[in-house]
Automatic annotation (TrEMBL):
Compartment(s): Cell membrane
Protein's UniProt name: Homoserine/homoserine lactone efflux protein
Underlying gene: rhtB_6
GO MF annotations, alphabetized: amino acid transmembrane transporter activity
Domain of life: Bacteria
Keywords annotated in UniProt: Cell membrane, Membrane, Transmembrane, Transmembrane helix
Species: Paraburkholderia domus
Membrane topology: Multi-pass membrane protein
GO cellular component: plasma membrane
Transmembrane regions listed in the UniProt entry: 6-27, 39-65, 71-91, 112-137, 149-172
UniProt xrefs under Pfam families: LysE (PF01810)
């Protein structure tokens, strides 16, 4: 694999990271409603989920799932149901979802991390990204295809986490004043819930390309 190919893949990954999708919208919702720490935990959870997709893609299991309409549909509906579940929870909450003070903040942040992880793992579009994009940057006669696939996947995930961190800091800074207002913070929580429900419904109706 040449340096030119590697740079092209990094550039393609950056462009795709900047396109709003379920993970980016989940990240945005957490950051706007709950602040920088919540956004960072969501970002790292999403990034860990991306490594699961990379592992599955390298072992070839993603290809089997995406080749089966039944398996793909099942994964899609599980992911959609999870997003709707998160959204309804936010919509039913009283007041805002501001992070608690003291020791309980660690538990809250851990929950957000795993929610981000599941949000990514249950998104079949991420699996499709690895299956569709990675082979475009591989040579059919590559003597070390697994090593190079892993190198490309790790590079893409590093671009993803860097992009997410920058996004979180910018979004948190722009909305910090809003979260300090209790009424606005409560509205942001409801908006986040509606966003998650909308994402779940959108994911449920999407078809594989």
């Amino acid at each position: 694999m040449s340096l030119h190919t590697y740079i092209l893949f990094v550039g393609a990954s950056l462009v795709l990271c900047l396109v709003p999708g379920p993970d980016m919208l989940f990240l945005r919702g957490r950051t706007i409603a709950q602040g920088r720490m919540a956004g960072l935990c969501a970002a790292f959870g999403i990034n860990l989920g991306a490594y699961v997709h990379l592992l599955v893609a390298v072992t070839g299991l993603s290809a089997l799932v995406l080749a089966s309409a039944t398996a793909f549909t099942a994964l899609k509906w599980v992911g959609a149901a999870y997003l709707v579940y998160l959204g309804l929870g936010a919509l039913r909450s009283k007041g805002s979802l501001a992070l608690p003070l003291g020791d309980t903040v660690t538990k809250a942040l851990r929950l957000i991390f795993w929610q981000g992880f599941l949000s990514d793992v249950l998104n079949p579009k991420v699996a499709l990204f690895y299956i569709a994009l990675l082979p475009q940057f591989m040579n059919a006669h590559d003597p070390s295809p697994v090593k190079h696939l892993v190198a490309l996947g790790v590079a893409g995930n590093m671009v993803g986490i860097a992009t997410s961190i920058i996004y979180v800091f910018l979004a948190a800074r722009m909305t910090s004043a809003l979260r300090r207002n209790q009424a606005i913070s409560s509205w942001l929580t409801k908006a986040m819930g509606a966003l998650f429900v909308g994402l779940g419904l959108k994911l449920a109706t999407e078809k594989i390309q």
